[in-house]
């Protein structure tokens, strides 16, 4: 087992050698974003490493004429523009102006990431580095759950400082990455089961986080994978039923109670109030909403019931990304936000046209399923969380743009190769003929 890992590490290191500067900057972006050594190691945060990496990346891309701007990029920047316009016309300009640069930062990150990779090998290496960074978090989460005796904690589990510190957001990241990794591991056909530790620890972290939204998102993502790989057969349904029954039996009683009371407990009824108020805001301000990041303030002033409870004294977010977008940015922004999901999700196998698909095409199909599962998982999580301006969907958009570009390039190469082969077949009789 360890000899296999050793050989794979050697191949990975060999694959990293000789790549171009832009790709290395893309890897640095992933490491700085998800592993965050500049935060973990004391004294390293004396300069803005992430921003400098992106800046040098863009300069290198322009120098090499590698900066491509697609229709998807345009719509992401249009979404950011709508967010800024909403902030400029906000009912609460002081609140909306505090993080007015955030939408364009995410748009620039999509543009940067999607142009860092120029071939399939680089995409595979980038994904490996990404999953290694996430594995550090998933291993921590799984270890925490084990140390609790697989028990329930009302506070869930805290992720690293930043976007994923909250238990709900942390669990969704783990759910997305667990679902996303499975098709790629199946594609690899590894000689050791050790690689399955990653999705396993990610699933364990979702369980430890005690987030109903994250757990439901994970379940939907896994069901999609079963459907995608056509594993919904009687035998497999029996296995799934047994697995779910065992998992439910091992579920802490407190977590079971949370699912059993879903829809009627205070958390659920309060969120329904948020959603109803958000729809009402969209009706009143359909074009640009009440203002970027202004939902908590507007709800608190116009909809909050001051009954003396704990929640009545807090300014809460919408707890639904679609409601968040339509209430604060308007209906046009909601249309764009929903379109982002469809741009990542793709229907139809990429292998249907090919009787003997090449290895790269098989990888593209696995990657397609991977992204589909990831965006479905994200969408379910987004129903229960306000995560419009979190990294999840922007990272998936960047990968989807890479997939489309590389797939088109691969298809062109196949067509050129077929054309050259056909030309050789046509020329061969003439070239072999001798003059009389």
Explain what you see.
- This protein is an all-alpha fold and 436 residues long.
- It has 2 domains: 16-67, no CATH class; 70-419, no CATH class.
- 70% of the residues lie in helices and 0% in strands.
- The chain contains 19 helices and no strands.
- It has helices at 2-16, 21-35, 37-40, 49-63, 71-88, 93-96, 102-114, 120-147, 167-188, 197-209, 212-228, 234-250, 253-260, 266-284, 295-302, 321-328, 331-344, 359-384, 391-432.
- α7 (102-114) packs parallel to α19 and α9 runs parallel beside α11 (212-228).
Secondary-structure topology with pairs:
Layout: H1 2-16, H2 21-35, H3 37-40, H4 49-63, H5 71-88, H6 93-96, H7 102-114, H8 120-147, H9 167-188, H10 197-209, H11 212-228, H12 234-250, H13 253-260, H14 266-284, H15 295-302, H16 321-328, H17 331-344, H18 359-384, H19 391-432
Distance between the termini: 67 Å
Strand-residue fraction? under 5%
Mean pLDDT: 88
**Low-confidence region ranges:** 432-436
Domain unit count: 2
Name its key features.
19 helices; 436 residues; mainly alpha
Q: What's the gist of this structure?
A:
With 436 residues, the chain is mostly helical.
């Amino acid at each position: 087992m360890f000899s296999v890992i050793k050989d794979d590490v050697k191949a990975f290191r060999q694959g990293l050698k000789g790549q171009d500067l832009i790709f290395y900057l893309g890897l640095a972006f992933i490491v700085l974003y998800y592993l965050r050594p500049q935060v973990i190691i004391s004294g390293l945060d004396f300069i803005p490493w992430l921003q400098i990496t992106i800046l040098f990346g863009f300069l290198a891309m322009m120098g090499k004429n590698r900066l491509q701007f697609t229709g998807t990029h345009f719509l992401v920047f249009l979404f950011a523009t709508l967010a800024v316009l909403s902030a400029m016309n906000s009912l609460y300009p002081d609140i909306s102006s505090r993080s007015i640069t955030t939408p364009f930062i995410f748009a620039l990150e999509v543009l940067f990431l999607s142009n860092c990779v120029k071939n399939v090998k680089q995409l595979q290496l980038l994904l490996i580095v990404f999953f290694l960074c996430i594995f550090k978090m998933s291993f921590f989460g799984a270890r925490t759950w084990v140390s609790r005796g697989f028990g329930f904690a009302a506070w869930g589990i805290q992720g690293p400082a930043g976007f994923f510190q909250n238990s709900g957001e942390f669990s969704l990241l783990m759910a997305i990455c667990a679902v996303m990794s499975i098709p790629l591991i199946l594609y690899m056909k590894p000689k050791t089961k050790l690689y399955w530790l990653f999705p396993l620890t990610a699933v364990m972290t979702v369980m430890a986080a005690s987030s109903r939204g994250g757990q439901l998102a994970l379940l939907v993502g896994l069901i999609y994978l079963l459907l995608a790989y056509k594993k919904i057969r009687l035998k497999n349904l029996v296995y799934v039923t047994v697995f779910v029954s065992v998992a439910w039996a091992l579920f802490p009683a407190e977590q079971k109670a949370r699912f059993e009371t879903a829809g009627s407990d205070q958390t659920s009824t309060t969120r329904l109030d948020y959603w109803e108020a958000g729809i009402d805001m969209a009706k009143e301000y359909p074009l640009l909403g009440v203002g970027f990041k202004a939902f908590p303030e507007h709800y608190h002033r116009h909809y909050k019931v001051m009954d003396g409870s704990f929640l009545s004294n807090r300014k809460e977010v919408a707890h639904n990304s679609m409601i968040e977008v339509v209430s604060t940015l308007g209906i046009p922004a909601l249309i764009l936000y929903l379109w982002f999901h469809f741009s990542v999700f793709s229907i139809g196998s990429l292998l249907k046209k090919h009787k003997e698909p090449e290895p790269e095409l098989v990888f593209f199909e696995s990657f397609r399923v991977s992204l589909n599962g990831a965006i479905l998982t994200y969408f379910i999580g987004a129903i229960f969380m306000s995560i419009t301006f979190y990294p999840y969907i922007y990272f998936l958009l960047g990968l989807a743009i890479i997939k489309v570009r590389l797939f088109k390039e691969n298809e062109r190469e196949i067509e050129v190769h077929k054309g050259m082969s056909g030309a050789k077949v046509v020329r061969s009789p003439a070239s072999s003929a001798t003059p009389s």
